[in-house]
Structure formats: C-alpha cells, structure tokens
From TrEMBL:
InterPro entries: GRDP-like. The chain crosses the membrane at residues 170-193, 200-224. It comes from Candidula unifasciata. The keyword Ligase does not apply. This is Glycine-rich protein. It comes from the Eukaryota. Keywords: Membrane, Transmembrane, Transmembrane helix. It holds the Pfam family GRDP-like.
Length: 800
C-alpha cells in the first residue's frame, strides 16, 4: 500500500516562531486570565469577529484585537469543534487563521480589520480596555453558543506560554526544520495518533536520533515546547489542517495526550520539558519607583556662605572652628578651617565639598583653642558638635538645588551651637548600599501545600503523614542609614530536596529564588548550541536556581564547583637522590552562569577564591560575600531581584562546595590552622557572611548530602525540588577534604614535630600521604636524618 504524502501548505517553522511571540504578548497581559474579560471577549468573538472574518477575510485572514485573538487561539486548539462551530454559526463557512505574517504585516492587517470593524459596527469598539473593572456588562453577560467551553480552555491554556518561556530550543531553526521533517515522516508512516498527541514528537525524535547516533546534534528538550508549538501551529491554520487530516485519515482529530505509552511503550517525560508550575506573573509584589529612589544614596555639592558660632565656651587664646564631613563620629574630610576671634564668618565661599551619602552622613564642627606659634604651638579641642546632613540631602528631589539656613543641636555637655548657611546644588542619585545582618537558623515544619508560606514555588506532595521539617532563617538587610529595608528568608527542605530564597519588603514578598532541576532544564547533550542554551548537568554536580519577580521568571543561575584537585604527596629525598616535588591540592572555586530572562543576556563568572577575592561584579551590582555587602548601581532598579541573586549565588556555594568525607551538619569544616609553619590553603566559607547566611553549616540538600545518602555515584539536580535523585556518575565532586596549595618541597626540619606529621593523612584530600612515616621519617621527625637526608617532599595536598 502506498503511503499518503503530506504536502503541508503552511510554513510551520515561521508559524512556530510567530506563535511564541503571540504567546509572549498574551502572557504580558494578566487581564486575559480574568473570567469577566474572557466572557466579554467570547461574546465579541462570536457576534462581531467571526461574522466579520467570514465576510471579509477570505481573500486574506484579518488580524484580531488581542482579547479576541486569544479566544480565537483557544477555540482553534479544538479543530473538530472549531470547524463544527464555524459551519453551524456561519452558514458552512470555516474562517481561516494564519500565524505566518511577520510583525509589520500583522500591524497592517490589524489596521485593515479595525477600519472594516468600524464600518460594520460603528457603535461597538474594536479594542476594549483590558481591565477587569472596565468590563462592558452587555458583552460579559451576553449569550454565546459554542459546542466547546472556550473560557475553560483559556484557563487551561494560560499556562502554556510560561511552560515554553525558558526554552531557547525554539529559536534554533536547525532543530525546527528537523522536527518538521519528523512530523511529516510520522504522518507518512500513518501513525494515526500523531496529532492527538503532539508532544510525542520529542521522544520519537530522541529515539530516532539515538539510533543514528545524532543525539548530540539536535535540541531534544521539547515535550512541551517546539513540537507542541509546531503541532499547535498546524491547528492554528484550520483549513490546511482539515484538508490534510481528511486526506490522511478521513476525519478530524482533537488533540489529546494519551497515546504515547501505547504507541511507543516509553515514558512520556523528557529532560527540560516537564510542567513548570503556574505562571508566577502577578503573584509577587512590585516595588514602586519612588520607593526604590528612596533607597538610594544621594550626593550634592555644598558651598558654605555663612557660619556663626552661637554658643560656645570662652576661649582665652586664639580660636579655630573646623568644619568636616564625617561618618558618625569618624572624620572623613576637612571642608574649612575658620580662624580669628570673631564669632561670625561670612564670605562668598567659606568652603565647599561634595557631600555623598554613600560615604558620609553628617557634618562635624570642632572648636579648638590655639596657643603658641607656628610649629611650637598647640591646639586643644574645646567643644564639638555634629549635624545630620544626610537627612537634609535625602529629602531633596533629584536635580533640585536649595539654600538652607541650619543650626546644630545644642550640646548639653560642651554647650556649643553653630548656625550656618549652605548652598546645595543639583542633588544626584547614587547607588543603593545594602548590608546583611544575619539571623539564626531554626527547625520548623512548613507544609508544602501552603503557597502563602512558599510563594510561587511548584512543590511535590509528600506522602500522607510526612512532616516537611525545614531549616529556616530570616536575615535583615539594612541600607546606608542602618534602616532595615528587606527581610530575606532562607529555607532548606530535605524531604522535598528543595532550597528557597524569599525576599520581603516590609511584609510583601517581592522576589523568590528556588532550586530547579532537569525537569525544567535540558541536559547539555540535548542541545546543539551549548554556549547559548540554558542547560543543567547533574553528573558534574551542577545545581540551578530560578529567580522570579512580579513579572515572572527573572533569571536562572547555574553553579558548579570546578578546579577541585587532590594533592599528590611528594617523594621523600634519600641519600644520593633528590626528593620529588608534590603536586599541590586545590580547593576549587564556584563557576556560575547567569541568564537574564528578559534580555537573554548570559554572564559567566568564575569566582576568584584562589586569590582570596570574595566579591564579584554582576550586571548592575557588586556583591561581597565575605563582608555581606551589596552595591546596586544607580542605573539598576532590580533591587529585590539582585538581592535574591546574591543569596542564590551563596546558596549554590553551599550546595556545591565539597565537604570533608563524613562531615555532618552543624560541625565546622575548617581544617587545621597550620601544619608546621605553613598555612593550609582552604576557602574560608565560615568567614563568608552571605555563605553562612545561606546555610553552609546547616542540613541542606547539598551535593554532599546526596552523595552521603545515596552513594558515591549519586547526583542532585534531577528533580528540581521534587525529591528525585538520579544515580549517575558523580565525577570527582566531594571526594574528600580540601587539599593545600604549597609546593610540597620542604627544607630540612620544615615538617615540624612527629606529632604533627602523624596527623597527616586523616583529611583524605592530600592523596593520603600517611603521616610522618610516609614523609620519609620513621618517627615523623622534621630533621634531615628523619626525612631520609634529602629533605621531606611534603604531602602536597595538606600544605606540607
């Protein structure tokens, strides 16, 4: 029997790309989730749009306004119902639809449709305000007659755009072309269910490619992405779809997801393509622009025109009034030194300075009594007072200048008071400074089914009767004035294998970060352009955090520990032969990739732990992990998101850094302070404020925990908080304690005493030099004879 050929008249590649753009535009309008808006659009769709499109759209499909376009889209996803409804409501006319037009053509078609609409329906608006409070009752409550519940379908479809939002595979045209060919192949071999199960195409493709060893070439993470888009795009061209289905199978199918296992006897799931939870857009609070501006430091140029000493103790000799900028009581810079016996100084410019609240917060006035002459003279502090000038600067609008006449408060002890007149010119905004004030971790039960506790984080359900015990801490984040602006909550759940970051402004949750796994991200072997794609490699110990704000997904951060190396012990020198240099161990460092979802920008960072640098430069911010300090630049308004990013990076450090073998939570990981006279090189994680705040010593779903619980070859990151762990090659992650960085060649006696030598080998990170005897000295002695006469080679990894 000859197989039917599918000559598809639709450019599905172009349609898929345009379809994604359409879904994105709908996702950006939260009102399209409101039932009143949807029912209003449904009425407009049946009574205005379909008759209009049937009458005027046969020569070329018209572009609908967004609310109607969304209802039309949802109706088209049930092809049999759509064709049936069109035939019944429009006298046997099936209105065609197209996703093949580019942006310019769509705008032109939209204008044409608007003119036709205004001519046909002069009393009814073409576009309506998409605001639930502005719904027109006669449209919302009007009668409609469809065989398919389109409003319910819209409720189901509202999440689809979010499911494909982080899949860059859509835009790899090589993949789309390959997928299209497979779709046609499936049609040609007469798999009758292919359009009933559009998402089966991905796993069919994976199986097909694996057989031909093409697995590494193509992007296969598409259960909910490209193949679905291609199949849905076929539905969105109803005349072409109807003709092809009737030609192939004699009837039209609605799409259904039930036949995959029946046809292929394989699991439906695939990496990076599973359900991602509900769209978080609108579930988090948005910081207002004026609120963000109030968090910023400010600066202005000050010119002092008049200074009067209103009250001060009597000075027998010459007096000098010194004006300085200061931080609290600490002097920063001198503005002016006013001398003479007068109590009033008045000139055009007595002194000037740029007052930047990033560095200083007050003015300091100091009255000195001067005696003697020149180098033989002396000065004595008589009285001192200060003025909180930060409050003056930060109450002035940006760009505004002002002349202020001010007075210092009267000091109850020194009885000094100063009046001064100052010109303040052109107030400028500066960066935001945030300082971590860490809280304590506590154990608490956090039910996984309460979104008000967790925020927009998709969580699996634990077995009945299982309590979700978590490690929870709340940390304050202060601004440059010492005011608590944010509260950051860290949560670690071993039952859920989930860690989360919550950022609150007052009592409003404004940003969230949580672990995700290969349920949402593809693995590297699934992509053709690895540098451009967001991937996760659990076998290499990679972990990923998804950060969300009021708009939805804000960034994805993937971290892994790289450069970890066991030390190789040196060979002890013997009489007549030199010792062999040991290879130093390395504690490694954190390697990060940060994808910004809105811009598509990817930043790659390898933290400079080996150089004892614990700060990093991010896009629009600087984070100091050790000092617990964040600087957000004056052109960056993503304040809460950047704070969530700082904690997410710290969380990845906690989850990825190797621990000593057998380490248990709440115990220190720090190695011995010294070996002989040499310091042991290790990352001072317990001295890094952000890392400790992220739970470094707590019970967390870290790579170390996974390895200790599930074995040497286990890896985390596969379940993304779903509690799943894949047993795979764990590479060399977490394979013992951290080695040192010394060269391993020791001078005579450099190894220290035998007791110190005997302790070597216990850490496991040096390659097991075995202690003093292993260093060539039978008693572990440090002398030349004990080391074989040639000097101890050292263990390398332990810093010896």
């Amino acid at each position: 029997m000859s197989l039917p050929k599918l000559n598809c008249p639709v450019d599905l590649i172009l349609a898929a790309v345009n379809h994604l753009d359409f879904l994105k535009s709908c996702d950006q309008v939260p009102a399209l989730r409101d039932e009143g808006i949807l029912r209003q659009a449904l009425y407009r769709y049946q009574h205005f749009w379909l008759p209009l499109a049937a009458k005027h759209g046969q020569s070329g499909t018209l572009e609908a306004p967004l609310d109607i376009a969304w209802i039309w889209h949802c109706h088209l996803l049930s092809p049999a119902a759509y064709c049936s409804d069109c035939v019944r409501l429009l006298d046997d006319v099936i209105v065609d639809h197209s996703m093949e037009r580019n942006e310019k053509a769509r705008k032109k078609s939209l204008q044409e449709a608007k003119l036709i609409w205004q001519n046909e329906y002069p009393d009814d608006p073409f576009e309506v305000e998409l605001n639930p409070e502005a719904v027109i009752p006669k449209y919302r409550d009007g009668r409609t007659d469809f065989s398919y519940d389109i409003v319910s379908a819209a409720g189901r479809q509202k999440e689809f755009g979010y499911q494909v939002e982080i899949k860059p595979s859509f835009f790899f045209l090589l993949f789309l072309h390959f997928l299209l060919n497979l779709m046609i192949m499936i049609c040609n071999i007469n798999l009758i269910y292919f359009l009933m199960t559009p998402i089966i195409l991905c796993l069919f493709m994976q199986t097909f490619c694996t057989l031909f060893n093409w697995f590494f070439v193509f992007f296969l993470s598409a259960i909910l992405d490209s193949n679905m888009c291609l199949s849905l795009d076929f539905f969105l061209h109803p005349l072409a779809y109807k003709a092809d289905m009737e030609k192939l199978y004699g009837k039209i199918f609605n799409h259904d997801d039930s036949a995959w296992r029946e046809v292929f006897n394989e699991n439906f799931a695939n990496y990076g393509a599973m359900y991602r939870g509900e769209n978080p857009a609108g579930k988090l609070f948005k910081l207002k622009s004026d609120g963000i501006l109030g968090m910023r430091t400010k600066s202005a140029h000050l010119v002092f025109d008049r200074v009067e000493l209103k009250a001060a103790p009597n000075v027998s000799g010459k007096s000098k009034l010194q004006i300085c900028t200061a931080t609290n009581s600490k002097q920063v810079g001198v503005i002016a030194k006013l001398k003479g016996s007068e109590r009033v100084w008045q000139e055009k410019s007595l002194g000037s300075v740029t007052f930047d609240t990033r560095n200083v917060n007050c003015l300091k006035f100091s009255l000195y009594e001067c005696t003697g002459w020149a180098f033989f003279g002396s000065k004595t502090l008589v009285a001192e007072t200060g003025f909180d000038f930060l409050s003056v600067i930060e109450t002035l609008p940006i760009g505004q200048s002002s002349v202020q006449e001010l007075s210092t408060p009267r000091d109850s002890n020194l009885q000094v008071c100063v009046d001064f007149k100052v010109n303040i010119s052109s107030v400028k905004k500066g960066p935001i400074l945030l300082f971590l004030k860490a809280g304590q971790y506590e154990r608490a039960i956090m039910p996984e089914n309460l979104e008000k506790l967790w925020g927009p984080i998709p969580l699996s359900r634990l077995p009945p009767g299982t309590d979700n015990w978590c490690e929870v801490a709340s940390h304050k984040v202060l601004n440059h004035r010492g005011t608590a602006l944010f509260t950051c909550r860290l949560i670690h759940s071993l039952p859920l294998m989930q860690s989360a970051v919550h950022v609150f402004c007052q009592d409003k949750m404004v940003a969230v970060g949580h672990l995700i796994g290969t349920d949402q991200l593809p693995i590297p072997t699934q992509v053709s352009k690895r540098a451009a794609a967001v991937t996760l490699n659990p076998r290499a110990g990679e972990r990923a955090v998804l950060i969300k704000n009021h708009k939805g997904d804000w960034a994805i951060v993937v971290g892994r520990w790289t450069g970890y190396r066991k030390g190789v012990p040196g060979v002890a020198g013997k009489r007549g032969s030199r010792g062999k240099r040991g290879v130093p161990g390395s504690p490694g460092t954190l390697h990060l990739k940060i994808w910004r979802m809105e811009t598509g920008y990817m930043q790659e960072l390898i933290l400079s732990y080996d150089q004892k640098i614990y700060s990093m430069i991010l896009s629009g911010a600087v984070v100091d992990l050790k000092a617990g300090y964040v600087l957000i630049e004056d052109n960056c308004d993503d304040v809460a998101e950047t704070l969530a990013l700082a904690f997410s990076i710290s969380l990845l450090h906690v989850l990825c850094q190797p621990r000593p073998k057998g380490w248990e939570p709440y115990k220190s990981t720090q190695p011995a302070v010294a070996r002989g006279m040499r310091n042991v090189t290790a990352i001072p994680s317990e001295d890094l404020a952000f890392v400790m705040a992220a739970g470094f010593l707590m019970s967390t779903p870290s790579n170390h925990y996974v390895r200790e619980r599930y074995g040497e070859h286990a890896c985390a990151g596969c379940g993304g908080g779903g509690g799943e762990v894949e047993i795979n090659d764990f590479a060399d992650i977490d394979c013992g304690s951290i080695g040192g960085a010394d060269n391993g060649i020791g001078d005579d006696g450099a190894m220290g005493g035998g007791e110190d030598g005997a302790g070597c080998g216990g850490c496991g990170g040096c390659g097991g030099c075995g202690g003093g005897a292993g260093c060539g000295g039978g008693d572990g002695g440090g002398g030349g004879a004990g080391c074989g006469g040639g000097g101890c080679g050292g263990c390398g990894g332990c810093g010896g």
